[in-house]
Design goal:
The complex is a heterotrimer of chains A (291), B (336) and C (404). Chain B has 336 residues and is mostly helical. Helix content of chain B is 80%, strand content 1%. A two-stranded antiparallel ribbon of chain B has the order 1-2. In chain B, helix 13 packs antiparallel against helix 16. Chain C has 404 residues and is of the alpha/beta class. Chain C contains 12 helices and 15 strands. In chain C, helix 6 links the parallel strand 6 and strand 7 (201-208). Classes of the chains: A mainly alpha (291), B mainly alpha (336), C alpha/beta (404). Chains in contact: A-B, A-C, B-C.
């Protein structure tokens, strides 16, 4: 029983972080209809910012949230404005050239990080990195619990933002029907720029929350990009609630897979769920819940 | 003049190893030829049927492992892989395409990426068959590079002629119609699913054979090497993009550029920086040299970003644009 | 635009030409140099250790040249980057042998690259001294131009076996966790066999993909099986997460043992902090091994580069001395003669005595003992074999909540 409960707790806590990674991707995919294959790499950049702030200035990762997120918002917006938006006007037989562009951007970001910080492993050690509390026999990592609640907080904030603000409404309109939104006077270029910025800021938050319990090196982005699109497909494009579902589902699937099938399969489990959902439940959870 | 270019190129390639006896350059040319086949194979799917595949390594690795398993499990020559590797890769491509071609655009790309990763995991975990990460070793058959060179060359020539003839046939027109507008093609009665399957299987077949050649040539494979998302699948895409998607000779140019850029950076601009550093003895130049030799991936990444932005049809596809780049720039300057 | 282009183009051409000229000009003094080629991963994922090895090679060659070189000639080290990929490694060694005409090649690092490069060396009949690639097969081919300085992966846990036999006799139930890499997969299999020989019960053996965020599900499973010893073959960051999360889960076996890969590096301690305390690890080399010059090498490295070195560096440093020794004894500076003198090597290095012998299926393989180290108060101490220990071992491991 303890094994089961501990696995459950581990899965849900990890799922909270995953959903934060997924929301950003979900927004970008929903609004622009492209996959951002540099998503994990953007997270990596945020992690390096957090690391540098901690290493040189001694700033706590939770405080760096307020620096890393705006910085990544800016980076994301610039990427969208100067590399992705111009592609809309480029005549090309190359399909999905925006997606392929994000691959190139991801490569460039990774290599720049390697230039500055070398391939060495870095980590940020804080007093709460290893702290735990126990409920019965079940252990909870404090850093992960905090990360989980911040992730949920951000998700609710995003939900509110998309529902209640003008920009949020425009984003949703663009996600639902680009042409119609354009006709209603939505400046689609501005919206996509803001969306990409927001998506980047959210994944920056995830990176910053992850770093106290994890570690960092330039190639860290790839696996998280993969997780992000699995979550997005699970949850449904453009859906914040869906991203939470997707994140927690992936977290649970990985945890239970690791405990009851074998840790070697945990990546595979995610990918197989992904293909199954893609084929049999296109649209993900969003289709079931309609939110 | 343009008509004869392929023949001149072919002639140069045939006599190349006889003239250049240095096995270092021969090795680089073999890599180029291998990438020509991989790039051409990849190019069929996005260039002619408008789907981007991120899963080329799945086919490449399957081909390589077919050759490896002939040697390690059956005790036969790994060259048998050349005969069967392509079909083994098709055996992966067939069910995958059957299931996943109902997905379009980005979703297909993601599914193929997932296929790549699943294959790598399977090869890693299934130790009793593949030896896992311990990998498979075969004895190289030839001492000289020349046999490998000509095998690679014939494979490259075969794949280009094959693709060219397919594109000139009825199939080719169907492929293009799918690329241009899938729904329109369907309404004209073209079985898009069927033709996409054909294009995927041709790609898988060519890539699989190349994988077998790679196994024979390199003598060692493990899942990280041949199922690598980054070093095979994405590189195949980049070769295609840089050279020019949807052109016959694009991958040829792309492969050459990729290997050249890689080698150029790796050796620090052909040893220039190293020499400069040892002549001047300055630490600064040394540091610069170190950064330059590390920059090959960065250089390639930047090249890709620039190509997608400014030469969206690649070097071959936008050749006229490159020729007229000066006037074009002027005009742009005036109009904006 | 055209002007702009010309402005860029002309210097670029001049640049390249100058480079070519320089490299031609240099040929003049090549007569008093002996060219030695080294292949290492200097970029890419493995760059960190490639860099340590490169520094060690350079340090050793500087010392050798400062002491007068070999046969009155200076050794000219040509280091090529493999980027950690076998095809690139092959480009690198082809260049070394055919362009630079080196008489001997060293380095290699990962097993896949090592394999691809030694195949070329063997075919071209140029001796290759492997100093890091640890796949058993490398010296099982009977290739007369290939030599290996480091022990193969199967021999890493031999010190642990004797420790289990003489000290930790009450260890009966063993859990093996390993990363799915060459090192992890073949090492865990060999260790499982060894456990059977020792009469130990392997209750769980599981692989994982390196880079996981959360090992708790795996560790919970381990905890529920209540093992006496956990043997982990992990790379440095996975190792530190495994230990941190074992602490978080209050997982208390009698013995935590790391396979040689990641548990002895300074980063492990830095990242996992006090969770590293009492952790044992099998290792080939630490600065405190009983070989002459080992400690001095460590100190010199620290002084020169202001960063710590570890066993890869020692392997490289020793390899350079073995190469220089072989060159010294060679009748003539041809690959064939260097190969013959390398085969007759009998040299004491910082990495232990080097002698290439044949045993079992292996040929031209150096045989070395391994050691057991333990983290004590944030420091790595050699604890086994007893004769060479720097501190007495601490066994059994106290449970997490009883510490301090």
């Amino acid at each position: 029983m303890d094994v089961f409960l501990q696995t459950l707790v581990a899965g849900i806590l990890k799922g909270g972080l995953y959903s934060l990674i997924g929301i950003g991707m979900s927004l970008i995919m929903g609004v622009m209809g492209i996959i951002n294959l540099a998503h994990g790499q953007l997270m990596m950049v945020a992690m390096y910012i957090t690391f540098a702030l901690h290493h040189f200035l001694g700033i706590d990762p939770y405080i760096s949230l307020f620096i890393a997120m705006p910085a990544l918002f800016l980076l994301g917006a610039l990427i969208q404005k100067y590399t992705l938006n111009p592609l809309l006007e480029v005549e090309s037989i190359l399909p999905e050239n925006q997606v392929l562009m994000t691959v190139g951007i991801g490569m460039v970001l990774t290599e720049i990080a390697r230039f500055i910080f070398s391939s060495d492993y870095k980590s940020v050690k804080t007093s709460y990195s290893n702290a735990t509390f126990f409920i019965g026999e079940i252990s909870f990592s404090i850093a992960l619990v905090i990360a989980f609640f911040i992730a949920v907080g951000f998700t609710l904030l995003m939900f509110w933002f998309l529902l209640k603000t003008d920009i949020g409404r425009s984003i949703r309109a663009t996600a639902q029907d680009k042409d119609a939104a354009l006709l209603m006077g939505v400046n689609s270029k501005r919206i996509t720029t803001i969306t990409f910025g927001l998506g980047s800021a959210l994944v920056a938050a995830a990176g910053t929350l992850l770093i106290p319990i994890y570690y960092l090196f330039p190639d860290i982005g790839g696996p998280f990009t993969r997780k992000a699109f699995v979550i997005t497909i699970l949850g449904g494009l453009g859906s914040t609630v869906g991203a939470i579902f997707g994140g927690v589902t992936l977290g649970l699937a990985e945890s239970f897979g690791a405990t009851y099938i074998g840790m070697a399969y945990d990546d595979m489990i995610g990918l197989i769920i992904f293909i199954l959902v893609l084929l049999f439940l296109p649209g993900g959870f969003k289709r079931l819940t309609k939110v | 003049m343009k008509k004869y270019t392929p023949y001149i190129l072919l002639f140069v390639l045939i006599i190349f190893p006889l003239v250049v006896r240095n096995s270092y350059y021969q090795h680089l040319m073999i890599l180029v030829l291998i990438w020509v086949v991989i790039g051409s194979g990849w190019n069929i799917i996005p260039g002619y049927t408008g789907q981007v595949s991120f899963g080329d390594a799945a086919f490449f690795g399957t081909g390589a492992y077919t050759a490896g398993l002939f040697a390690s499990k059956l005790g036969m020559s790994a060259w048998w892989g050349m005969a069967f590797g392509g079909f083994a890769a098709m055996a992966i491509a067939f069910p995958f395409g059957w299931i996943c071609f109902r997905l379009r655009g980005a979703y297909f790309a993601l599914a193929s990426l997932a296929l790549n990763e699943v294959c790598r995991h399977v090869a890693t975990v299934w130790e009793s068959l593949t030896n896992g990460m311990v990998g498979i070793l075969v004895m190289p058959t030839f001492v000289s590079k020349i046999p490998y060179y000509y095998v690679a060359l014939s494979l490259a020539v075969f794949s280009i002629i094959f693709i060219q003839s397919v594109m000139k046939s009825r199939w080719g027109y169907y492929f293009l119609s799918i690329r241009e507008d899938q729904d329109a093609a369907e309404s004209l009665g073209i079985d898009t699913h069927y033709y996409k399957m054909i294009s995927l299987n041709i790609a898988a077949f060519l890539t699989g054979i190349t994988g077998s050649l790679f196994m024979n040539y390199m003598g060692f494979i493990d899942p990280e090497v041949v199922f690598s998302l980054h070093d095979i699948s994405i590189m195949a895409i980049l070769v295609g993009i840089v050279g020019g998607v949807g052109t016959i000779y694009g991958p040829v140019v792309g492969a050459f550029v990729m290997v050249a850029v890689h080698e150029f950076f790796r050796t620090g601009f052909l040893g220039f920086f190293k020499t400069l550093a040892s002549v001047t003895g300055s630490d600064f130049v040394n540091t610069v040299a170190k950064y330059v030799s590390q920059a090959h991936v960065l250089g390639f990444g930047i090249l890709v970003v620039l190509v997608i932005l400014y030469l969206p049809n690649g070097i071959v596809g936008d050749w006229d644009k490159i020729i007229g780049i000066f006037t074009r720039f002027k005009r742009k300057g005036e109009s904006s | 635009m055209q002007k702009y282009f010309r402005k860029l183009f002309v210097p670029a051409v001049a640049f390249t030409m100058a480079g070519l000229l320089f490299s031609c000009g240099k040929k003049a003094d090549e007569g008093n140099k002996i060219k030695v080629g080294i292949v290492l991963p200097l970029t890419g994922k493995l760059a960190k250790f490639g860099e340590i090895e490169k520094k060690s090679f350079l340090m050793a060659v500087d010392e050798i040249n400062a002491a007068g070189g070999v046969k009155g000639k200076k050794i000219d080290l040509i280091i090529e980057d493999t980027t950690g990929k076998p095809d690139v490694g092959r480009s690198a060694i082809e260049k070394l042998i055919t362009q630079d005409k080196v008489v001997i090649v060293g380095g290699g690092y990962s097993s896949s690259v090592t394999w691809a490069t030694i195949a070329v060396a063997q075919k071209q009949r140029v001796p290759f001294l492997v100093n890091t690639g640890s796949a058993d097969k490398i010296t099982e081919q009977g290739w007369e131009y290939i030599f290996r300085l480091n022990p193969p992966v199967s021999e890493y846990p031999s010190a642990l076996a004797s420790f289990l036999k003489t000290v930790a006799k009450d260890v009966k139930r063993v859990a093996i966790l390993h990363e799915n890499s060459l090192f992890g997969q073949s090492g865990s299999k060999k260790f499982e066999k060894q456990c059977k020989k020792l009469g130990l019960n392997v209750i769980l053996k599981e692989g994982y993909e390196s880079g996981a965020v959360d090992f708790k599900p795996l560790l919970v499973k381990v905890k529920s099986k209540n093992p006496d010893m956990i043997y982990m073959i992990s790379y440095v960051m996975d190792a530190s997460l495994l230990m941190r999360q074992s602490k978080e889960l209050n997982l208390n076996p009698k013995l935590f043992v790391g396979g040689a890969a990641g548990f002895t590096l300074p980063e492990f301690q830095k990242n996992a902090g006090d969770a590293t305390e009492y952790v044992f690890s099998a290792t080939l080399w630490t600065p405190s091994v009983p070989y002459a010059g080992a400690k001095e090498y460590y100190d010199k490295f620290m002084k020169k580069y202001n960063s710590p070195t570890e066993y890869h560096g020692a392997e490289a440093y020793a390899a350079m001395y073995v190469i220089a020794d072989a060159l010294k004894r060679a009748k003539a500076l041809t690959p064939k003669d260097v190969r013959d003198s390398l085969a007759a090597t009998n040299l004491k290095t910082v990495f232990g005595p080097v002698k290439f012998i044949s045993y079992g299926k292996k040929t031209q393989q150096n045989k070395l003992p391994t050691f057991l180290v333990q983290w004590q108060k944030g420091k790595l101490e050699t604890v086994w074999p007893k004769e060479v220990s720097t501190k007495p071992y601490q066994y059994p491991t106290p449970s997490w909540n009883k510490r301090k």
